[in-house]
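User: I want to check something. If I give you two sequences, will you return the structure for each one separately, not as a complex?

Assistant: Yes, each is folded on its own. Here is the first sequence with its structure:
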Amino acid sequence: MTLKNVSAMIKERKEEYLNQLFTLLRQKSISAQNIGIRDCAVLLKGMMNEVGIDTRLIETDGHPVVYGELMNSKNNFTLLIYGHYDVQPPDPLDEWVSPPFEPTVREGKIYCRGAGDNKGQLMAHVLAVKTYLDAVGELPINIKFVFEGEEENGSVNLPSFVEENKELLKADLVYSSDGSSHESDAPLMLLGVRGMLYLELTAKGGEWDNHSGNKGNIVPNPVWKLFDLLSTMRDSSGRVLIEGFYDNILPLSPKETELLKSIPYNQEEIGKKIGYPDLKMDGETYYRKLTMEPTFNICGIHSGHIGEGAKTIIPSKATLKMDIRLVVDQSPDDIYKKFCTHVKKYAPDINVKRIGSFKPSRTSAELKCVEVVTEALREAYNEEPIIQPSLGGSLPDHVWTEVLQLPSILVPYANFDQGNHSPNENIEIDYFLNGIKCTCYVIQKLGDYEKDIKKEGTISIDKGGML
């Protein structure tokens, strides 16, 4: 086994690897506020070049992409690794136990903004390549890296970047590490993501706030306008009433149904971890609702007086924000049109603004690449991995499966309680180190697969990926 030295090497280099991660974490890279982004991209580029990865910055209409590659004409198989170097704003600052951009270790966890999302997971890939090269000598496959700086801003320029660089990004499989591991701590593989449509609704009443007694029953209240509209959109069971909302949803395959049934589930533990102890549903229902069904969620409503004490007014304006999670093959464009048509019918004076969207994406569980990566996880963690057909959240996975027509596999390297987007975001040191090891095993197993198919004379790749 060519990886016999990998675990020992990672253990030996623990402090060195942690220090490299800490250097990246200290560099602010807040995409929403354009703070430190280019400095972080330059820093990451230098780190990758030091490993031996041929790396450069590629400009977009927004923040630059850090692109790297390790290519060898002897290798026929190419893995594309995706991640993002931008982070969320650290607010609220007073809830951080330690400074948000000073990595601090407490009880085996690294606390810092970006520790889990996504710098820790990104660096696991870079350091895995370094480890593999030093332990084995050369890579058995080609590897390309795409690290973007706008994921926390909706990856607005990633689709155009991928579309414009199809030739450069040619590969056989996309591999990403983002999000949280399963609450059971077992290794997790995700084969897709839900899409998302983010909307803002604005209702108007009078030109200004009015006295609720002197003008009550005269000036309309915009909050009630929103409530009345919402009541036409969803019934008491949660079913969305917008015409055509459930069109184009692909039914689960027998394999996907089987996978949902096999995912470990502890109702009481999950209830505690998500802060909802009243959770009451079986495991199959939980994972089906979480990953394979659309949602219709209100994120927040703002209007009138919400401070302490009384202020008797009829507000002049009410704003509501909502996200709608979508599943394959729902289209954000199609759902947006149907949403607007519904609003025009029931409340034509309410304004709808589209804030952003992601398309849903899914890779077939039947592909050979899923089997190969499953084996890599099994050996790296010495445990049977959980295979989940989709992530509950949304990522720009469709740029790989739709634009590049490649299979895409997501394996989170951060702990379930990483607190990404929250104060005290963290990654467990063991998860970070195990992520390095896991990527080494994925590289090795894909290399073994390439050798096997070379013996057969051809590499069998279709638009859906490895057969």
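And separately, the second sequence with its own structure:
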Amino acid sequence: MKIIRGLHAGYAVFTFSLTFLIFLPLLMIPVYFPRQFHLVGVFNRWWARVFLTLIFIPFKNEYRAKLDKNKPYIFCPNHFSYLDIPAMGLNKVNSIFVGKSDMEKIPLFGFMYKKLHITVNRGSLKSRYGTFLRSCLAIDEGKSLMIFPEGGILTANPPEMTRFKDGPFRTAIEKQIAIIPVTIPYNWIILPDSSFLPRRHEMKIIYHEPIETQGLTLADMPALKQKTYEVINSELKKHLNEH
């Protein structure tokens, strides 16, 4: 069984690289024509669908509320697996990622990621503040943001989440836009952080009802973080009990 999973893992890495190279010319369009930034979400969606289909992982998006595709949001998903990135690429609302600057070191992919998305060095106060300013500017330009509020794959006991960072919630309050909690219940089973051997299981992404921030101030940020955490955590526990 491990041999088959190992072959599947090798095939998945090859497929990831091949599909990325195929889509790279398309992803360069919004790099050179920034006003076409909506194409980032479109091409991410195409790539994610092709990649996941080719590696035989079924997927399903579930939206608990109707979202306005022309309205900016901040999406906050739990983060237990490297598969969470293509999972969030399936989002029907065109979005850009706010992620760790380590992604910039990946050949070709890092160049594209830095140009199209927002990166942050979490160990640098200056970088974190710069990311906050760029995030606010992106929202002013009409972009939705995808931010993993845990700040990375940090938990030692999935599906238990670690404490949420302030960034997405401070930005949402500053710009008075809604937070969308997102639960990804099974990716830690399909591809845990401790292993590169994938397991067969349906991928599911649940977009919860928006949490509005109209009228909130920074004094409300702890409560906003806690509410978002509880929405995601409750759904994780529900799926764990059903699994």
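Because they were folded independently, the notes below concern the second chain alone. Residues 2-32 form the longest helix (31 residues). The domain at 2-242 is CATH 3.40.1130.10 (Glycerol-3-phosphate (1)-acyltransferase).
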